[in-house]
Design a protein that fits this description.
Blueprint: H1 16-33, E1 37-38, E2 44-46, H2 47-53, H3 59-64, E3 66-69, E4 75-78, H4 83-92, E5 102-111, E6 123-132, H5 137-154, E7 159-165, H6 169-183, H7 192-200, H8 211-216, H9 229-244, E8 249-251, E9 263-271, E10 279-285, H10 289-292, E11 300-306, H11 307-316, E12 329-333, H12 336-351, E13 356-358, H13 365-374, E14 379-383, H14 385-390, E15 392-397, E16 403-407, H15 408-421
Parallel strand pairs: 1-5, 7-8, 12-13, 12-14
Antiparallel strand pairs: 2-4, 3-4, 5-6, 6-11, 7-9, 9-10, 10-11, 14-15, 15-16
Helix pairs in contact: 1-5, 5-9
């Protein structure tokens, strides 16, 4: 039996890859305009980094990580997310010594052992930003406005930012207490995961997707009821700045996010027409994370966006650009001598940066013209024994069917001229 790709992964084939490149190019352009620099970290890290950073009680750490022992008997994990890795690099590579805040972005693969389903993979890809070294509301607003700007640039519609404040450790403790009191007599009605969360991290119950749990928590106390004055002032500042930036937002008091490190601002970007999984971006502030993994107290905020899910939204809304022609021209050589001459011209045109191709199988004129059409080539450059004797090249416009004859000696200049004119 033929070997198949691992479950929950995908092959990105030509045609699809161009869509990914379009999205990644747009991401990099927006980040450059906002003054963010790219960071790349290892695809695997010490398991302890995610246990301490993401949280021992999270589903990611308990159920979803790809963890293994290396040959030195050290526990390693394929990264399930990048925030902890970026914070580790911030400490280890002494980025705290640079002018603050440090504004970083990343694009790359992540790994989680999830049940494969529509829009979810075990190897998936994320774009994210992290800002370390500043805690002002303006930083939160800029991070949210960056992803908002990106989605507008891509042409997505039906967008709304859901935002909340989960508070600091002090006011969150009071909210935790009130939530446990509210759910105490209904604890047995919660799903098995939420019964386990009740003692360890009851706020995560608000994030549960189980319909019965959502019904039970419908009237639960919200974080707004327990925010301290500092957190409340910070949140009001963020909302005012989002309004000034023209970001369409809605305060969602149930929004707590699924990771333990979030403090104060938490947000998700929602989009219409993507099915049950309507969130295409999520993030928030994590002012205690750098200290948790061994650094000095350092404020931070960021988000992660699923590349696959954004591409799905672009597909549904018909916002992906049309495929560009793969080749400007394709040589069609008939006979060995013609093939040698055509290959020489081909190499010279490629040296000039012109995308040209050539049939590699020595097929018939008809077959080669079909191949040129499959490559979306604008021109077919036909050279046979008869053309060699006359010292000419036939240039056929495959769009309008017009064919011209030019001297071989002037053929490169003529093709270059057409390419520069975009004809």
């Amino acid at each position: 039996m033929a070997i198949q790709r691992p479950k929950g992964t995908q092959d990105l084939l030509p045609g699809t890859v161009e869509q990914w490149q379009y999205l990644e190019d747009t991401i990099r352009n927006v980040c450059r305009e906002f003054g963010y620099e790219e960071i790349r970290t290892p695809m695997f890290e010490a398991t302890e980094l995610f246990q301490r950073g993401v949280g021992q009680t999270t589903d990611i750490v308990k159920k979803e990580m790809y963890t293994f022992l290396d040959k030195g008997d050290r526990s390693m994990t394929l990264r399930p997310e990048m925030t902890a890795s970026v914070c580790r690099a911030y400490v280890e590579d002494k980025l705290y010594g640079q002018p603050q805040p440090v504004k970083l972005y990343y694009v790359g693969p992540m790994f989680r052992y999830e049940r494969p389903q529509s829009g979810r993979y075990r190897q998936f890809h994320q774009f994210g930003v992290e800002v370390l070294g500043a805690d002002q509301p303006l930083v939160d607003a800029e991070v949210i406005s960056l992803v908002w700007n990106l989605y507008k640039r891509l042409g997505l519609v039906g967008l709304e930012v859901h935002v909340n404040s989960v508070g600091c450790p002090t006011c969150r403790a009071e909210h935790r207490k009130r939530l446990q009191e509210f759910l105490d007599e209904r604890q047995s009605e919660l799903c098995s995961d939420c019964q386990e969360r009740f003692e360890r991290n009851p706020l995560r119950i608000l994030d549960c997707k189980n319909p019965s749990c959502q019904t039970l928590t419908a009237g639960a106390p919200t974080t707004k009821d327990t925010l301290c004055e500092e957190c409340s002032t910070h949140f009001e500042g963020v909302l005012a700045l989002l309004g000034a930036a023209g970001v369409v937002y809605r305060v969602n008091p149930r929004l707590v996010r699924g990771l333990d490190y979030y403090t104060k601002t938490a947000f998700e970007v929602m989009v219409e027409e993507i099915g049950a999984q309507s969130a295409i971006c999520g993030g928030g502030r994590y002012d205690g994370l750098v200290e948790e993994i061994g650094g000095s107290p350092t404020p931070g905020i960021g988000f992660a966006m699923g590349i696959e899910r954004v591409l799905a939204a672009l597909q549904v809304q018909n916002k992906l650009p049309e495929q560009k022609p793969k080749l400007f021209a394709m040589f069609i050589a008939l006979g060995e001598k013609a093939q040698n001459k055509a290959f020489s011209l081909l190499c010279e045109l490629r040296d000039q940066g012109i995308p040209v191709g050539m049939d590699l199988l020595g097929r018939s004129l008809k077959a080669q013209l079909k191949a040129a059409d499959r490559q979306n080539a604008r021109f077919a450059l036909i050279l046979g024994e008869a053309e060699l004797e006359k010292n000419v090249l036939l240039i056929r416009d495959l769009t309008i069917g017009e064919q011209t004859e030019v001297s071989l000696d002037k053929s490169l200049q003529e093709i270059n001229k057409k390419y520069q004119r975009g004809v």
